[in-house]
Amino acid sequence: MRMVDLIEKKRDGHELTKEEIRFVVDGYTKGDIPDYQVSAFAMAIFFQDMSTNERAELTMAMVESGDQIDLSAIEGIKVDKHSTGGVGDKTTIALAPLVAAVGVPVAKMSGRGLGHTGGTIDKLEAIPGFSVEIDTNQFTKLVNNNKLAVVGQTGNLTPADKKLYALRDVTATVNSIPLIASSIMSKKIASGADAIVLDVKTGSGAFMKELDQSKELAEAMVAIGKSLGRDTMAIISDMNQPLGRTIGNSLEVREAIDMLRGEGPEDLRELCLTLGSQMVYLAKKAPSIEKARTMLVDVIANGRALETLKVFIESQNGDASIVDSPEKLPTANYQIEVKAKESGSVSSIVADKMGTAAMLLGAGRATKDSTIDLAVGIVLNKKMGDPVELGDSLVTIHANQQDVQHVVEMISSAYSISKSTVEKPTLIYDEIY
Ligand code: URA
């Protein structure tokens, strides 16, 4: 087989076979096929798309390019959740103990990553003592006993995706549905999930800004999951404003705890109940989505969800007393209010700008080696649709530096206030099966 022939075949819109896709992925991973040929190949896919079969074959070839996590020692159906990412997305921290509390085994492998705040692991490390450095035996034991454990990413998962994603980043080929869908699904499948619930974000703060693009991506991922034998569904949720009321590691942990206590913002609770009921149903712990939702509402009301969080924290060496005393989480030295300059209703909060503001405070990493400040961040006192009076606090900045004028300006420019009343945005747009 010659790479140039496969580029030509895809360029001309023909379907590639399993063997041809393997040839490209294996050859590229080993270094036998150069970047320039794979760049041309990715661009051909960008313009010519891939069939459902090709997408599934590309996903599997990337899964098999590296290690795969074996979760078979864990009892029950392991359901993983993946979000395409957004600002203030602390869902995993609340959702994992929530579904574990009704008996769904959650064996989560998480990362740190770059972004407006740290990843799930960074957020969890805001809890004093909490450790994700656990070995496979202990991980399995914890999930079997407590239904929940989170471990840092280990092993060499999907090296083909790592290499291809880096190449796409510099060849204008990131924004291709077949390439995004196979990239995300390869990582989920290599992590050992039996079933997958996807949270595809849509809106100004999301990877996919338009609803029809988000749906197309969700449909592509669900089709790949199903054709590879994983029960998969997706919801499309809003990211036109940050999720919940906090952005920043320690602040987000606190908000997740509030949610499990039955408090906290309505959008976070609703998103967790929507995703959670799908997870419980796919794990076959409930006969219907409606029943699954009732079970989740019950464990919030009777304290089982909060208790599961405490056991989870303790079993990974964290200080579980933060659940009842969240003031023990890292706190910033200064709190600065950003006030409304006019009265009306909040008509938009540009999520990206709010994320950048949190990052400027030190809540996120700009490069792999940056350190993050777990204490700093932003609390949104007003969200879209809320009425405001001149001088009301829109946002409280939690900072470890006194001069945050640049952050205040960024936040002020993210908020728009309208004289007319504004409807609250839709949170869940669609469900894709
Ligand atoms: N996230 C991924 O993991 N892969 C993509 O291709 C795009 C977003």
UniProtKB/TrEMBL annotation:
Job of this protein: Catalyzes phosphorolysis of the pyrimidine nucleosides uridine, thymidine and 2'-deoxyuridine with the formation of the corresponding pyrimidine base and ribose-1-phosphate.
Sorted UniProt keywords: Glycosyltransferase, Transferase
Cofactor: K(+)
Pfam family of the protein (one): PYNP_C
UniProt source species: Halalkalibacter alkalisediminis
Molecular functions (GO terms): pyrimidine-nucleoside phosphorylase activity
Source lineage: Bacteria, Bacillati, Bacillota, Bacilli, Bacillales
Oligomeric form and interacting partners: Homodimer.
Family note: Belongs to the thymidine/pyrimidine-nucleoside phosphorylase family.
Protein's recorded name: Pyrimidine-nucleoside phosphorylase
Catalytic reaction(s) noted: 2'-deoxyuridine + phosphate = 2-deoxy-alpha-D-ribose 1-phosphate + uracil; thymidine + phosphate = 2-deoxy-alpha-D-ribose 1-phosphate + thymine; uridine + phosphate = alpha-D-ribose 1-phosphate + uracil
Gene3D superfamilies tied to this protein: Nucleoside phosphorylase/phosphoribosyltransferase catalytic domain, Pyrimidine nucleoside phosphorylase-like, C-terminal domain, Transferase, Pyrimidine Nucleoside Phosphorylase, Chain C
EC number: 2.4.2.2
Domain Pyrimidine nucleoside phosphorylase C-terminal: 345-418
InterPro entries from the UniProt entry: Glycosyl_Trfase_fam3 (IPR000312), Glycosyl_Trfase_fam3_N_dom (IPR017459), Glycosyl_Trfase_fam3_N_dom_sf (IPR036320), Nuc_phospho_transferase (IPR035902), PYNP-like_C_sf (IPR036566), PYNP_C (IPR013102), Pyrmidine_PPas_bac/euk (IPR018090), Pyrmidine_PPase_CS (IPR017872)
